[in-house]
Each structure stands twice: as structure tokens, then as C-alpha cells.
Amino acid sequence: MKYPSNPREAATDAAQRLGENNHGFPDIIPLAEGVKRVELTQAWQLFIAAINPRMNKARVAGLLGDAVAFTNGTGFGDTPRRNYLTGEDLNAQLLPTFDKVRTCGGACHTGVIVGDYLRLLTLDGNLQPPSIADANPLSHPHLFFHATIVYMSNNGVELSRVPFENKRAIAPEWGYGFEVTMMPLVSCVPILVPLENVQRVSAYSLPYYRYP
User: Fold this and answer.
1) Residue 32 C-alpha from the chain's centroid
2) How do beta strands 117-120 and 192-194 pair?
3) Interior CA angle at 65 toward 69 and 111, to 5°?
4) Predicted pLDDT at 39
């Protein structure tokens, strides 16, 4: 396994190795579904924009689309929902919501062991988000995750895990000189993950890789 200095190079490498069937797919891991959904209020929408400081607001809104991995059927689309990022449908009755609690593959989170489970430390979706000065991907990386794409070979072998493609969305504020898409780990309910599904690490690490 190799860790590229620029993860986008790993995507290019995987695409070349796959030929025509060169697309990846979101490396999404559901943590809870059928629970109280996080409503993306004006404050939460602007918080997501703030953790992606070099991404324009329209692209941030695109992360919350109706057919996107984080807001399937509950994001911006045919049903009007208040979009404080673009200023559209501000009089709509509905807000976008995260339809499930999710993270992405390779994410580093933390929590407290409760029996055979890890109770994840998350942001509280019942409340307004913290200020970006108090919690951000640099100061509290475990409260966020990198939105990632995984490339698989035709026989199901993982080739690479790379950032969502958002050109020019670098984040030197958080120490990243390459394009990244950051999302908050947020839930309205406690999240318990079986310890058998958790890999312990000694330090925070990025989720990106490229297999040789």
C-alpha cells in the first residue's frame, strides 16, 4: 500500500488501470438509520461551508443534493428545501436533512468503550453547531471525516481511496494542500459501533491510499 502525497494522483492511476470502467463510487459507511435525522439549519449549512473554506457555496450545496450520498432523498432537488448556501427557496417549509448518520471508509474517530461497543464522540445534531474556532478539522479531526471515493477492480479488489473531486477545494487552513471535501460527524442519538468493526490506531491518519 502506498500513500500518495497528492491523493488525486491515486485516482488517475486507478482510472488508467481500469480502462473504460474507470469510475469510483462513494466509500460510505452508514452508522445509524431510522433514527432522528439531523436537520441542516442555516447554521449547519454554513458550518459545512466553513469546514470547506476554499469550496464555493454552490459546490457545498451540491454535497447536500437529493441524489448525493449524504442526503439521499432528503437534500436539495425537486422538493423545495431552504438553501442558505445559494439563497434559494428560503420560504420553503422543509430543511435538508442527513437521511442517515454516516462516515466514510478509513475515517479516524474516537469515543468511549461501553461493553462490546465504541460509543462514538460526535457533534450533537440536536444543537446548533459549535463555532468553527472551537471545533474544526485541525483542532478536532475526530469530529469530521473526509468524503472519499473508492476505486475497485473488476474482480472486487480495492485499488485506491481518494477525495471527492472538488477542483480547487484545497484546505491549507486544516493542513491540506490538496483538494479535500470535509463533512461533520454529527448525530441526534448515541452511536454505538461494535468493537469488532473498529480498528485501533495510535495516531490520527488520513484515509487515502493506493495499492501497488
Assistant:
1) 15
2) antiparallel
3) 45
4) 97
User: Within the chain, which residues score under 50 in pLDDT?
Assistant: 1-4, 212
Q: Which secondary-structure segment (H or E) carries 183?
A: strand 182-184
Q: Would you say 3 and 161 are in contact if contact means Cβ atoms under 8 Å apart?
A: no
The whole-model pTM stands at: 0.88
CB 98 within 8 Å of CB 186: yes
- The CA distance from 45 to 150, in Å, is 26
The Cα 92–Cα 99 span in angstroms is 18
Per DSSP bridges, beta strands 209-210 and 158-163 are antiparallel
Distance in angstroms (rounded) separating the CA atoms of residues 178 and 180: 6
Check residue 115 and give its pLDDT.
97
Is residue 186 within 8 A of residue 64, CB to CB? The reply is no
